[in-house]
Protein 1
Amino acid sequence: MTLTQFNNETFRSINDLAGSFSAANPVMVFLAEYMLYALGILVIACCFTRSNRNRLMIVFAIVSCGIAEILGKLAGLLYSHHQPFAELPNVHQLVEHGIDNSFPSDHAIIFFSICTTIWLFRRKEGFICLLLAFCVAFSRVWVGVHYPIDVATGTLLGIVSSMVVYKTMFASRLVKRYAESGVKERVENF
């Protein structure tokens, strides 16, 4: 079995659930389309907390997300394919989506880079965020806009970029100085 066959068959097994378990479709559509807004609200809320650690976490998350997106665009130049609904017959397409290169999934990149960073800083909340990221990635296949390889690659890029950014930025003297300095008090009093 080739990778393309495996990818297509795995896609079919997940996407066909939309026909078999149609009661779950509204939840999957919500996860696939609107959970990104909830993640954005979470990021903004963390920026306005009085915790210097939360602010630092968001800086790390934004940097890792940016790096993962750049890597995703480069990966998309090396390998590309259109969305499953544009290439395969009888796809349960539950959301509107333009036809372009679907490799890798931007949603998976964004969710996993941000949620992995949250997990690195705050284990309990981060674990919940990672579960949510997995649900979003799965929902993107369920609703017919991504192949499993798209979300798997986006997941990998998001996780790896977060780990690398976390390790390298914490090693940075600038970050250490910021975390240990009186900047926290100056920012909170601003």
Protein 2
Amino acid sequence: MSVHVERDKESGVAVVTLDRPAKHNAITLEMARALGEVWRGFRYEDDVRAIVVTGAGGRAFCTGIDRDAAGNVPQPSSPYTIDDPLLTIGPKANDLWKPVVAAVEGMACGGAFYLIAEAEFVVAGQDATFFDPHTTYGMVSAFETILMAQRMPYGEIARMALMGTAERVSARRAYETGLVSEVTEPGGALAAARAAATVVASYPTEAVQGTVRALWSAKEPARTGALAHAPHLVSLGNLPPERQAGLFTGRGGGGGYRIR
């Protein structure tokens, strides 16, 4: 299922790895279901007190949903409803309040933001880049933009979302704007994230989870209200699938979005 979980009982840290490096760790429908099961399962694992989420291979953290593997997900006819298989791939969407640290190497784009936005903080290798390809391919960036707007200044998230594949936010710029909390040498993000998670896991569980919940409560009203508008914004603003496919043709790359 291409989602690997490693547990270290001594430190209390688990590492969740998206493991499709040949496809830039793009997420299949099977992986989306597996991630939900992993997060829900952690609620009952008292030995797991902090979690790191990362991508295998170093070239990418995640490039969103794998359109080739997932195919066209049938959508309801109502503009107020949308079936987005990535909506429940994050820990908070699965009612998990154990702290999560994202370790990002390489590309993180599109659907990767469902995971990054639900992490407590992000550690990135120096070569990491963040971008949002939706508008390039005739799609509304609604869910991703709303989620990341809780983590980035308005102008920064607006520029990234509107510029599409033409804009790559570097790890250094992401650090300067607060999206990333630590920049490491290339390849060092996982070790640094694991070290931070080990410190957090060493503290009393109730205090840590209560702090996570308090932090999220500060932004939940705005986030929930904005997400209520997302389905019909996507339904009204997305190009028809056949026109999207035309924009994808010839772009090259693999995995989630065609990466130029």
Protein 3
Amino acid sequence: MSERSDIDIAFLRQRLEDRRADISAHSNHSEDYRKPVELDQQAVGRLSRMDALQDQQMHLEQERRRAAELDRIEKTLARIEHADYGFCHNCGEEIEKKRLEFDPTTPLCVDCAAHVKHS
């Protein structure tokens, strides 16, 4: 496979790097919210503790999603470095330019993605 000349790889790489920095900043900012909730019934009532536990779980889920997105970004940046970017993982055909512009991390063309969803 050769590098795609029909897409602005430098622009997409910059978008990915900016998003990676954004995710890291959010992850660092929300670190305190993911810490274990203290079990001190004197200081916090049962309902307040339940709210705190729910908040903690929401922040943990957000962190899981950020980690998954970071993983996709890292894999995409690696594909860019190896000139594999813009080609479908399954069939090797070019991924549509509009699809890559919408989601630069997408590894599949429309046809292969449709087959994955229906399987």
Protein 4
Amino acid sequence: MNDSLYDEYLKIFKEKKIKLTNVRQSILKILSTRRHFTVNELISELENEIENVNIMSVYNNIDLLLELHLLFANTINGKQIIYEAISPQLTHLKCHKCGKFDHIASSSLDNELLLHLKRITESIDFDLEHFKLELHGLCSDCKK
């Protein structure tokens, strides 16, 4: 688990005076350990930790996290929704042949992009807080 991310989530909930239920804490722990997840994957992990998972509670918590801007929802091929924790920069790679979906993990690239995008958005009087970029092409396996 990414303790600093989990602690950051707890701090936000406390600042906003949002009750930290057992389900909510478990969801935040999972969110701080997973790069991407679907609702079904989240429910499966919760069922390993908690007896009697209320599915509606899971959906309500996802809605809350989206509303608090702590979670991104990514739609893959217009069908599947994959969630992930928000970070200041998200750069995804999507293979259009096999459908593989992954991150570029490069803080120097992300910082360069952020600076460039901030210059662009400032020129139109827009304050950029974070960005999500999706690049499409062929993964190394599909190129073989």
